[in-house]
Amino acid sequence: MSVVLLALLALQAPLDEGTLLVRQDTAEIGREAFRLSAARGGSGWTLASTVRYDRNRPIVVLNPILEIGADSLPASLEFSVADPRDPLRILGQLARGRFTVRLLGRRTERAREFPASGRVVVLDDSVFALYLLAAWHAGPSPVPVTAIFARSGRRELLVVQDQGVEATTVNRDPASLRHVTVTGGANQLVHLWLDRAGRLLKVEVPASRLTAERTPAS
Fold first, then answer.
1. What distance in Å separates the CA atoms of residue 12 and residue 111, rounded to the nearest whole number?
2. How many Å apart are CA 127 and CA 144, to the nearest integer?
3. Which of 10, 78, 99, 181 gives the lowest tally of CB atoms within 10 Å of its CB?
4. How many domains does the chain have?
């Protein structure tokens, strides 16, 4: 096998992939499969997620694909919402201190620009793998970030902070994990839990009684 082919295969291999089980209180309401990979050309990353909420009708599937630059900022977003009541395609682009969002519906098209200077992340209330990007900005002191919620049309000023290694549980098993908090905005407080390799293992949103925990690798 040639060196060039080996390099191409290495770029195609995911840096991380897994499945998050989404619960509200103790009831399972959905599953999220995500994949983090190196971007083509090796400069930046691609985070793709598919979240299926099928415990109620109609079934809704969310599929964001976020391109992240080498500076850890969101470069572009392509987000499909498969909802029979209101299917939607969302396109986002970061340029010149603004994040521009276009929402394409069945018969409508809307556009909106959000101020987005400094540290910027793209988040969604129902897609939990995106919170990994917020954790990338965390340090031992509070770090301000601008969060763009493209689907709901919100811009929030949040604060992320690394709380160090603390005790928690994942799938009811005890674990000592890196704890990152995200404070502010509509959700008030979000807890992120990562392992030593920086993999996202659990997200907790107390205000909405939601948790997303990584399922064990098969």
1. 33
2. 21
3. 10
4. 1
Three-state DSSP at 70 gives: coil
Residue 207: φ, ψ to 5°: -60, -35
> Which of 178, 172, 183 lies closest to 211, judged by CA?
172
**Full residue range of the structural domain in which residue 8 is found:** 3-214
Q: Measure Cα distances from 172 to 100, 168, 175 in Å.
A: 41, 9, 9
| Residue type present at position 137 | H
pTM of the model: 0.91
d(CA 146, CA 124): 13
- The mean pLDDT of 188-192, rounded to a whole number, is 98
For the chain, the average pLDDT equals 92
Strands 45-53 and 60-68, by their bridges, are antiparallel
| pLDDT tier, 9 (very low <50, low <70, confident <90, very high otherwise) | very low
pLDDT tens, residue by residue, 144-157? 999 999 999 999 99
The two tokens of residue 76 are: 């572009």
Q: What share of the chain is helix, strand, coil (3-state, %, to 5)?
A: 10, 60, 30
pLDDT digits (tens, 9 = 90+) for 199-209: 999 999 999 99
Please give the torsion angle defined by the CA atoms of residues 120, 187, 153 and 33, in that order, rounded to the nearest 10 degrees.
80
User: What span, in angstroms and rounded, lies between the C-alpha atoms of 77 and 68?
Assistant: 9
CA distances in angstroms from 143 to 46, 133, 148, listed in the order given: 23, 13, 16
